[in-house]
């Protein structure tokens, strides 16, 4: 059995940097940007489950972010529910929605699947936009206050950052376990050889549906944190551009890798929030960076960098031996 | 009368107006080695795909060990004891040989739906996969990725993945296709070593190898069965010559 590569030093360095961030970056603005990155990373991680590990390209993933955020705000600020019950309803209902959307979307594959997810996402956007009495329409829905779990003051930017960072860690842990589990491995098999998997006794549809629901659950968690962060939600959260941005994060960081979407989320959120303050046409820069990634690192930033480092090491050691990389067994960066 | 391993009756499949398989009826008793012969385009692989459940028949019925599976999916049929190999090798090229066999083993276990247990920690599973690879003589290459193996080794891996599931009915689609003379001997030897309680239905073009292997031979042409019987009968039948030589 292949021994997984697990660079503890890199892990610890990365973890230390993330934990030390509020001390390194004293500006509240940048701590808030970091919180946004973390929330976007959770959403990108959940989409990566579908795209990277399942081969199901979805353009409707903003649905889970938006629905969860709308529900959390509506339940706590308008329907009189407490923070915990509001959060549970938001996550539970959004996961149930993922069950329905998965059932509908998985009636097709490839382009058909993409179009159904796009259509379902746009239906929700239309509802949020037009059903003004419930959703506030174009004005959005606000009035939410951040909760105080275990006495933590989440209005403080650094504490909120650690709060969302905890959920990112939890998401990474659960997803890492999932991709090495029987179901996760089955999902990757259905991505590569669906016909063969059926012949081996796997119910491909059921495996994809269960994974779709799991991805929807983490999308809902991201939506809840989004609601806590902004204390406001508008139809923009459900819009196609949000789904496309998330897709961009996954592709830029590296599909089918554990940490790629986190890097992709950091890239897109920083460009969107920080670089846009200095460059008016930041979208052109984002486009240029994306084209460069596709041209020079088609597998994404993280696998691309890993490959470059690997080649550099080979050059330094004069070792030309290449080894195949197992998509399933080998832990990927 | 014992229940046959495979029984098809009046099986047809049309692609648009084109009949790929026409009104085939066949009974394969348990433990039999059945050979499907026929020129390219005779409908052998389509017939195989119908039995395997890759697509439904236009007409007719399929029974595996007495159970009507006509409307069952291919994965449900696999759980009844059927396994198959492919004419065009269908493996997981970036994975190790060992992992390919593990994927095959997990297909019949509840573990395939487990979202939490780390597959790498299932030592018994990996040991079983290693033992299966030893059965086909590939244990020394267990840690190699499929990409790093030869065509003949991949053919043997295909068979290993099917055997790992301990099938009662094994469908082999041209297991010797594209192999060198030495590799053919290896695979031939491997096929001979499969226990007799496993029913085998095989498509093969190499007459010498196939005739030595089969108990009963079915010759197909234009989607239909033209000759069926024992080795001597089929070889002596003028229709067989007509199918292969055109006169």
In short:
The complex is a heterodimer of chains A (333) and B (247). Chain A is mostly helical. Chain A has helices at residues 8-24, 28-51, 62-78, 83-105, 111-130, 132-135, 157-180, 182-192, 194-199, 204-230, 240-253, 260-278, 282-296, 301-317.
Task: Give the SSE layout.
The complex is a heterodimer of chains A (about 325) and B (about 250).
Chain A: H1 8-24, H2 28-51, H3 62-78, H4 83-105, H5 111-130, H6 132-135, H7 157-180, H8 182-192, H9 194-199, H10 204-230, H11 240-253, H12 260-278, H13 282-296, H14 301-317
Chain B: E1 6-15, E2 18-28, E3 33-37, H1 44-52, E4 59-64, E5 67-68, H2 74-78, E6 82-84, H3 97-106, H4 123-135, H5 151-164, E7 169-173, H6 181-192, E8 199-203, H7 207-213, E9 216-221, E10 224-229, H8 231-236, H9 238-245
Parallel strand pairs in B: 3-8, 3-9, 6-7, 7-8
Antiparallel strand pairs in B: 1-2, 1-4, 4-5, 9-10
Helix pairs in contact in B: 3-4, 3-5, 4-5, 5-6
General description of the model:
The complex is a heterodimer of chains A (333) and B (247). Chain A is mainly α and 333 residues long. Chain A has helices at 8-24, 28-51, 62-78, 83-105, 111-130, 132-135, 157-180, 182-192, 194-199, 204-230, 240-253, 260-278, 282-296, 301-317. In chain A, helix 3 runs antiparallel to helix 4 (83-105), helix 11 packs across helix 12 and helix 12 (260-278) packs antiparallel against helix 13 (282-296). The two termini of chain A are 19 Å apart. Residues 321-333 of chain A have low confidence and may be disordered. Chain B has 247 residues and is of the alpha/beta class. The termini of chain B are far apart. The interface between A and B is large, with 36 and 43 residues.
